[in-house]
Amino acid sequence: VTLNYSGTAVNGEDFFGETSLVIPGGNQSVSISLLPFDDGLPEISETVTVGLEAVDTGTIGGNSSASSEITDGEGTLLFFADFENVDPFGDPGTPNLTKVGSDAPFAANLGTAVGSWEDIPEQNVSGDIPGIYLEVDDSKGDGVDEALVLDRVLPGEGDITARLAAPADISGTNAAFISMDLGNRRTQNTSEAKSWRIIGLDDAGEKSFELYVSGNNSGPNNEQLHHVSSEGELTPLGRPADFDNTGSIEEESEQSRLILSLTSEGYQVAIDRWPIEGIIDSVSDVLPYAGNATQISAILFSLSASLNDVESSGIIVDDLTVGGVPGNGAPSISLNGETLRDGESTSLAASFIATDINLTGLQVADADAGQGQLTATFQSAGDAPVTFAAGGPAVVTGSGSASLALVGTLDEINASLAAGVVSTTDGVTGGNAAISFTIDDGGSSGPGGPKAATHDLVFYVNEGPTVTINQAAGQDDPTGSSTIEFEVSFSEAVTGFAEDDIDLSGSTDTGNLVASVSGTGETYIVSVTGMSSGGLVIVSVAQGAANAAAGGALTEASIAVDSSVLYIPQLAPTATNLVQNIQYEVGPVALGDIQITDPNDSVVTTAQVAQYDYPAVHEDSLLLAPDPDTDAGFAIDLTFQPSGFDDFGTVRVAEIGGTSNGSGIYLIDGIPHFVSKMESTPNDVPSSLSDTDWTDGNISVPLTGAPVSLDEPVQLALISSLDTVTFSVNGFGQTTVELTGRGTRGNWSGDDSIRVGQNIDGGRGGLGTDPEGIFDDVGSFPMEGTVSRALLWHAPDASPFAILASSSPEEVTATLSLTPGEGDLTEPTGVVYDAVTGVWSITGAVREVNAALAAVEFLPNGSSPVTIAVTVDDGDEDGGGPLTGSITLSAGVVIVGDTDGDGIPDSYELANGLDPNDPADSGSDNDNDSWDALSEYLMGTSANDGAERPLFEIVPVGVGQVEITYGPILAGRTYDVLSSSSGLPEAPAADSFTAVQDGATNVVVDVTADAARKIYRLQVTVPAAE
Hints:
Elements: E1 2-8, E2 16-20, E3 45-54, E4 65-71, E5 76-81, H1 104-110, E6 112-114, E7 116-118, E8 131-134, E9 146-151, E10 159-169, E11 176-184, E12 196-201, E13 207-213, E14 225-228, E15 234-237, E16 256-263, E17 266-272, E18 282-283, E19 295-302, E20 314-326, E21 332-335, E22 338-340, E23 345-347, E24 351-352, E25 356-358, E26 362-365, E27 374-380, E28 386-389, E29 395-397, E30 403-408, H2 410-419, E31 422-425, E32 431-440, E33 452-462, E34 467-471, E35 484-490, E36 494-495, E37 502-503, E38 514-520, E39 523-529, E40 535-538, E41 540-541, E42 547-548, E43 558-560, E44 564-567, E45 574-576, E46 579-584, E47 589-590, E48 595-597, E49 604-605, E50 612-614, E51 633-641, E52 650-657, E53 662-668, E54 671-677, E55 698-702, E56 714-720, E57 724-729, E58 735-738, E59 754-756, E60 781-782, E61 786-795, E62 802-803, E63 811-817, E64 823-825, E65 832-834, E66 839-845, H3 846-855, E67 857-860, E68 866-873, E69 883-891, H4 906-911, H5 933-939, E70 951-958, E71 961-967, E72 974-980, E73 991-994, E74 1002-1007, E75 1015-1021
Parallel strand pairs: 23-33, 24-33, 34-43, 46-69, 52-60
Antiparallel strand pairs: 1-2, 1-3, 3-4, 5-6, 5-20, 7-10, 8-9, 9-20, 10-19, 10-20, 11-16, 11-20, 12-13, 12-19, 13-14, 14-15, 16-17, 17-18, 21-22, 21-26, 25-31, 27-30, 27-32, 28-31, 29-30, 32-33, 34-35, 35-39, 36-42, 37-41, 38-39, 40-44, 45-48, 47-67, 49-62, 50-61, 51-56, 51-61, 52-53, 52-59, ...
């Protein structure tokens, strides 16, 4: 016999559906059991009508329908969330006056009249950020509603809990119901990756029901609800597409209503398929539970959370209602107003042996305790013993022992706790102590039996005086001083503290570090010497290093306040072109540039090998290992020289990554900026030139306060952990900027592409589409200047990298001296020249001295030859003494021949410190850049400057093709690329090119076909006029 049934009442209805039964032959009647789907509304009295639908065999006489009155039982509303009318400006409102993002947890709970939400996320990977949104339509006919949207949340934030006001008991004859409007926002073709679950949990986390919503939008059970058995087996419920993809639009018409009716025997599921019309489209049989829980305290929405859009879930939920017989609710514990999680622990401040600790601030809560008797227990549970004492109105047992109990009502227990429970540490034994605190309600009210909560308070018990280490007063950090000082403070006077108690093993400076100790009583100064390589000097003191002056107890291990100082060695400068022979016809005579290099400039120091090294080894794609998507530490070292209009607009110096993820160094109106975007979109840009908050996925950090100078080199070093950026420009100290709001955001290198210098196409790095034009990729410019050095490293964090840049650049003095009366020298900016003594001198930062040396000219008066003595001195800070050289100037006809016939003109040999009479020096490599002198002449680079070297590079660019890059290019010279599969390549040339004008490089693509290997040779022909 098939029967249908429905209920009617003034306020809601609980009964609807269909059932079938068998009346055995010879029987005249049978009992009917109808399962209600409670709607959470108090009907008081409901008329349930059962009608005859069909009879398979036989006949039934009499009425075809019957009615009965059903009255409400003892159930109450245990959870109700209807997100309408949430007012972020109300009292209470939300902190930032919105309903989304960081305000989402507040808004969700403002929209929940009974119960509460836990772990509502504030950020997501993409899509709508979490929060309350207005629905765009009204399918239920009750007006346009609002709903909670949880879309593509971050990894680790996919479990969101609806916590009931009291547990819903489903033991014995008790029943519970759950209903909600639900939408499936994200699905994936032929994949279950975006699937998600709804799970009922009790106070202990044990499961009752478990449902699985398929995120697969193809297949036989696409977007369908499934029952999950205790073995994890899935059984489809309802129909495919009951929870169809709602997409990114908050449509009520795309949501289905899910209803659960739960008893001790199992549960049934009903679905009002979208659009919700109040008509049940499917009802399941009675289903077994996934676990053994007899109460439901929380509903867990477990979403797939991933940084990958094709794997992350999204849901929309509204009108979540739970009703039933309230079970006994578990008590909770708080400390200083903060709720403590059951089964976990909280750390307290360290203490000492034989010391009292007053445990104030500890309180308990139990919503259904009434005047029932509760028991609070303190139990010593660590290596260091603790005893307890208490007073107040609660009944106290075990005072003075390691186990103390308080018995009384909730108010009495809290009054005794507020009066202060005193724990006393042992007089001899220290170490790790733990106080296990338990509150047991004894089964306050409702079914479910006694409930308890336990939390451990852990702390360390010092047996002796404590030790803290800090930088000494006046200690610079970083420093180049030969002595570094730390202050070591004990909590009481000690004896026996000496040099051999100092541990320097954590230091990264590789010198022979030596510590000395001075002081008495409680305070000592530790002085460290012997630094050499540069790096951190780190001091620690082991446990037992000294003894308390009173009683002799051994001291504890040291606690670092600031126990490290970065040592920057004063390294000797180097210089090129110190020896010159110059032939001239008339004055003034330009001297060859003397280039001084300061190793203490803004450079990154690390033991790691650079993963990108321009121009030595580079390509347009980074081969970064380990993965930069998850490794947050990286360092950039750049030397570039802006020119032309590089001080106008946004100029691309170096870019890493693509349109949605990437980082870059840009000149913005001449000021260097570090700009980065992660897990953003192509159109997103920083909110300002100084934006240090990652919340919108973008940051911008200015690296100098004023524009850099055109046509002067800029040395830039930058280290990032994604939470901080440390940088130095031109050796002027280093600055660290804190970055906020990153969360788990990663992938600073985007698609791992990299472009430096004259980057014509751009790559967006940290740029986007900006109507203001500042961060606009399309409106940005390639550099007119050049990048001479670019290195990049990365690691899991920033710890392997440091910048050896002190608070100001090292000063050097350059002196040019000639015999008075043999001529004069000009005075560029900053120079002092005394014609009487013939001494020309400048003192300043390296770049200032280099600029003066590049500008100085000799003014002859007829004397020839004239020798100018050169001295470069850094004040002997490094102990290496001054650098010396000499410039010889000879009047007469300029030598243009090749006396020794080695293929290098005499004028080039004299200008580069070679001997015009020694043919063997054409094969020399005086500047140690791996290029011989003849090759450097042919390519137009200096044979006396290791930083200036030719480029000849072959890079595979596809199947059967290579890209050949060479330079620099000099007008008038012919460049022939010769190739062979074996032996020295000879003519004919694979490519021949005669330069019309000077240029940086020329690029040739050669087809290698099926050749197993190819050898390439560059032949340069100099025109006869040279």
